[in-house]
Amino acid sequence: MLRVAYLLSHPIQYQSPLLRLLGQQPGLELTVLYTSDFSVRSYHDKGFGAAVEWDVPLLGGYRHEFLPRILDSDDVSFFRPLNRGIFRRLRQGRFDVLWIHGYATLNSWIAMAAAKTLGIPVLLRTDSTLIDHPRGPVKLAVKNLFFRILRRFTFGVLSVGQRNTEYWRHHLGADIPVYSIPYAVDNEFFQERCRAACLTRKELRRQLGLEEGRPVLLFASKLLARKCCIDLVDAYLELAKRSRSQDESRPLPYLLIVGEGEQRPLIEARLQQASEQARKGVRLLGFRNQSELPRFYDLCDAFVLPSIHEPWGLVVNEAMNAGKAIVVSDQVGCQPDLVTDGDNGVVFPARDVGALADALANVLADQTACRKMGERSLQRIQAFSFEANVQGLMQACTAASEHK
Predict the structure, then answer these.
(1) Which of 143, 152, 148, 82 is nearest to 122 (CA)?
(2) C-alpha distances in Å from residue 157, one per residue of 84, 171, 198, 311, 392
(3) Among candidates 129, 130, 125, 133, which has minimal Cα distance to 103?
């Protein structure tokens, strides 16, 4: 029996279904050690700029406990949450492996130091990529020193995708053991909900005031600067201008924006300056909980994520489970794994509004081709599953325990 401790900051809606599946695996005794419980109660999410209370189960079906807290908050930073008793809990549990999500917190370093002392191998998982903010020579030198130290505490890493593997090998060396645990969502949940949503699709169109026959573009994420929703709005306004000037027979698509955040006033101001035709084509729908999202994925013809510095973008996984064409920038981390230009979507250079407008026009130019792209999205996402995660984690934990 492999005894594995998983140190995680707080219950995360994307991870809970995976943890329930891991809790059922023969030969694995997983204990999740949470450092905070803020996500299981209503809390203020800084990214959404609103109170959030998840409507999907975060706990239950797996072994977990909350570590005693010294400091806590409604967010994760280097010093918060901060817990006591990590060393004692690892020693008492007699764990074979310690799995840690993220390394940029004091709790993570305390846990790694404790594991090193106790002879417990450490597996790290994060979604970082080399597509990052530029740094000066001093910061780069400090970062290189940081990773040389980190390597001494780490047995291996759990890679979420191609760019994440490149990140680990760049910073920790080509010899670091890498195990594939691709970023995934609950495919079964989203596919089932999207199939059910198609039965009420016309009703949702009526509720949103969408005319029949006009295609639908969807953005669903926090309205943060790095998500670049304003670029999508500008590209949409460019499509509206082209539609007027060229007198195209194709109808202007609708743009649905699901999410809240700091950029909403900027988006609203931009739309106020736009033509009446363009304004009427955009719907700002605010924050929607996870159980509501499949209705919007089902409704759209193409899903768009124009982010910069995006480590992965799990909303792309969700939209692919609805069988949709995907438009992403080349700085969205999941792109090499999930989106191939011209196959199941379109890839454009980040922050290039003209290229984004062209991408939107191209993906909607032929509805049959757009549907075919969506079918290929659904086929591809099958490999990015929790079952693949279980297989990769078992392989990594077995290797780590044998290394003790």
Answers:
(1) 152
(2) 25, 12, 40, 16, 11
(3) 125
In sign, the C-alpha dihedral spanning 378, 182, 309, 99 is: positive
Q: Which residues have C-beta within 8 Å of that of residue 349, sequence separation ≥ 6?
A: 329, 330, 355
Q: Do domains 2-184+385-403 and 187-381 have the same CATH topology?
A: yes
In order, the DSSP letters of 24-84 are T-TTEEEEEEES--GGGS-EEETTTTEEE--SS--SSSSEEEE--EEE--SS--SSSSEES
Which value, to the nearest 10 degrees, does the dihedral of the CA atoms of residues 235, 241, 244, 246 take? -80
Which percentage of the chain shows pLDDT scores above 70?
A: 95
**Non-local CB neighbours of 8 within 8 Å, separated by 6+ positions:** 15, 32, 33, 34, 35, 101
Task: Evaluate if residue 249 carries a pLDDT over 80.
Answer: no
Threshold 0.85, pTM exceeds:
yes
For 286: left if phi > 0, alpha if psi spans -120 to 50, otherwise beta; the answer is left
How many other CB atoms are there within 10 angstroms of residue 277's CB atom?
Answer: 12
Q: CB–CB of 44/287 below 8 Å?
A: no
Domain boundaries, the chain: 2-184+385-403, 187-381
Domain 2-184+385-403: top CATH class: alpha beta
For 217-254, the DSSP string reads EEEES---GGGTHHHHHHHHHHHHHHHHHHT-SSPPPE
Report the C-alpha gap between 363 and 232 in whole angstroms. 14
Of 18, 28, 15, nearest to 398 by C-alpha is 28
Residue 234 near residue 314, CB atoms below 8 Å: no
Question: How sure is the predictor about 46, in pLDDT bands with cuts at 50, 70 and 90?
Answer: low
Residue whose pair of structure tokens reads 């026959």 in the numeric block: 213
- 187-381, CATH topology level: Rossmann fold (3.40.50)
